Amino acid sequence: GENVEQHPSTLSVQEGDSAVIKCTYSDSASNYFPWYKQELGKGPQLIIDIRSNVGEKKDQRIAVTLNKTAKHFSLHITETQPEDSAVYFCAVPNFGNEKLTFGTGTRLTIIP
Amino acid sequence: EAGVTQFPSHSVIEKGQTVTLRCDPISGHDNLYWYRRVMGKEIKFLLHFVKESKQDESGMPNNRFLAERTGGTYSTLKVQPAELEDSGVYFCASSPRFLTNSGNTIYFGEGSWLTVV
What residues of chain A, 15 to 74, have a C-beta less than 8 Å from chain B? Predict the structure, then answer.
């Protein structure tokens, strides 16, 4: 099965600075890479995803980069704001299957 | 368009009792998933339905857990009898078929937060 590693487990960033979270995966056939944000008491919400035909995708302050050769992808949040504080999960689908395997999560805290 | 809805949102039961969680997926989504997050750890896969059929139930912890999706619409997850270690948040999610096709993704509900005392 797919093995997904996510780092760091916790991250504190001064408001206005950038945050980067990285995930590595094991199945080279994987071709879809979503990032989810889970706020306290809520379910995971998709914030951005990328498919393997592109190396980078950006949506306002959020971007995801993908390196298929090295089998890793990263979430970049720029100009961080207090509302960015949450737990972030990367996920990778199991090839030939349609379920997601999640990383262990990163608790991001934005310091005002 | 309504999202994935789950009921109850919170439940506190005693050890040995039974709890049934319900999930209504997004209309038209063939894929329905159950996931669980325990004690602030990672989100773990429990099982996957395609319409009414169980595609993969490799994540179900033991036979105290039973999931159904009669008619391929809503799904229930029953825990009987509940144990202390079953406490956590149970997420339901849905997606169209062929997840990795462009434009398809998995959408999560808000979760059913279960506490077994």
Answer: 31-32, 34, 36, 41-46, 49, 51
Mean pLDDT of chain A: 92
> What average pLDDT does the segment B78-93 reach?
96
Average pLDDT over residues A38-49: 93
∠ CA B10-B12-B16, nearest 5°, is 135
Report yes or no: B7 at the A interface, CB cutoff 8 Å.
no
Question: Distance of alpha carbon A69 from its chain centroid, rounded?
Answer: 18
Nearest neighbour of B45 by CB, restricted to A41, A45, A101: A101
Residue of A nearest to B90 (CA): A43
Asked whether the predicted pLDDT for residue A29 surpasses 70, the reply is: yes
* In contact, A101 and A94? CB cutoff 8 Å: yes
Please count the residues of chain A.
Answer: 112
Beta-carbon neighbour count of residue A70 at 10 Å?
A: 8
**Cα-Cα end-to-end distance for chain B:** 37
Could you give the CA distance from residue B108 to residue B6 in angstroms, rounded to a whole number?
10
Q: How far apart are CA B50 and CA B74, in angstroms?
A: 12
Say which residues have a Cβ less than 8 Å from residue B5's Cβ, sequence separation at least 6: B23, B24, B109, B110
Distance between CA atoms of residues A96 and A101, nearest Å: 13
